[in-house]
Amino acid sequence: MTDAQDTAADSSLRTTGGTPPDEAGSSVTGAPIPLLEPREGIPPVVTDEDALARVIAAFAAGSGPVAVDAERASGYRYGQRAYLVQLRREGAGTALIDPVACPDLSGLGEALAGVEWVLHAATQDLPCLREIGMMPGSLFDTELAGRLAGFPRVGLGAMVESVLGFVLEKGHSAVDWSTRPLPEPWLRYAALDVELLVDLRDALEKELDRQGKLEWARQEFDAIASAPPAEPRKDPWRRTSGMHKVRRRRQLGVVRELWQTRDRIAQKRDVSPGKVLSDAAIVEAALALPATVHALAALNGFGHRMGRRQLEQWQAAVDRAKALPDAGLPLPGQPVTGPPPPRAWADKDPAAAARLSAARAAVTALAEQLTMPQENLITPDTVRRLCWEPPKTVDAEAVAAALAGYGARPWQVEQVTAALVTALTA
User: Fold this and answer.
1) CA separation (Å) from 25 to 20, 35, 37?
2) Are 269 and 307 in contact (CB under 8 A)?
């Protein structure tokens, strides 16, 4: 039994649907237990201000951390807005809130100021929660905690099963959460997602403490909670799947024009861009540079069930790109602000390539020793930047300062500095 499994054996954490843990407790043995129903049943969805006010009052009066989750409609709707928010807190029970009917949840966010929020994969949910006025002052990320503790599988279902001994039903994770009304099975799934989140947090906190990593986790959680919103991506059209096939500037111009046209249509219709036109179709048109609607219709992704008017709008986008002067065409590749791709280092700077190879080996060995993923010990980008342009004087103080300048947390600096100094001076 691992330390994490031993932590799970604390019977006070084991709670079946509708049944609180008994005082005597029971050992964690046998097959995992399916978690079929929330303890208090499925709460009604909050869809008006009066119901929201009652939820705010209940959660403000609750105790301990609050479990928070959000459901989006990725692949169905434009953007990443929340279509359901789930919360659970001791003394308040579980709440399911419809952020379409109640788009301003800043009052709830204010009521939970100073309360630790428990989320799983927090960086996925925080952007859509921020849009509706909810941002934690402090948080505990159970996925990140699992990574730092060395769990091989860190999805919520896997973590709940391995740590707490329960099986969560995950059949509705990819459904269209913009559907109204939401079916009861989906609401049950949503409520169960926060049912044991605080229990999982408590078990993982014990495990991290046992491994001497709790302070490390706290630094990571603080960094997530205090991070500013992400900057808009520059030239997002360049992330079109299959772009590696597109070489010529005129073809790049077609990709850009088709992508931007698709994005405008998707935003106006509030549907996922992929439902308007696939990335594969955009690349097909860019490579073929069709001269007519008839030629466009012969390409994969355009002919099947696509009406004449739709074909004409895509052909018009292709024609606009073809009519651009050379000066208006995009350049291949993206401006690189950091080091070049590592594959080019051997030719550009063999000494830097040798430093990178040694540093990667050192980080790999240290991560294995600490039983955590390498990217959580120190980001690959930080290692590349340090190896491409090391400090003039390579010593512990200079390397630590460089790492901190690249955003490494104090615990990361403390763990990797000695190994990186050795790698840089080898």
Assistant:
1) 10, 18, 20
2) no
Please classify residue 231 by burial: count the beta carbons closer than 10 Å to its beta carbon, then call 0-12 exposed, 13-18 middle and 19+ buried: exposed
Q: Name the pTM for this structure.
A: 0.89
CA Rg value for the chain: 26
The model's pLDDT over 399-410, given as tens digits with 9 standing for 90+, comes to: 999 999 999 999
What is the amino acid identity at position 282?
I
Strands (E), 3-156: 33-35, 45-46, 63-72, 82-90, 93-97, 116-119, 138-141
* Span 302-346, pLDDT tens digits: 977 789 999 999 999 999 999 999 999 999 877 667 899 999 999
CB 52 within 8 Å of CB 107:
yes
Sign of CA dihedral 197, 138, 88, 122: negative
Q: CA-CA distance, 33 to 13, in Å (whole number)?
A: 13
- pLDDT value of position 335: 66
- What are the helix (H) ranges across 227-290? 249-269, 273-276, 279-288
- Which amino acid does the sequence have at 178? S
Residue 232 burial class via C-beta count within 10 angstroms: exposed 0-12, middle 13-18, buried 19 and up: exposed
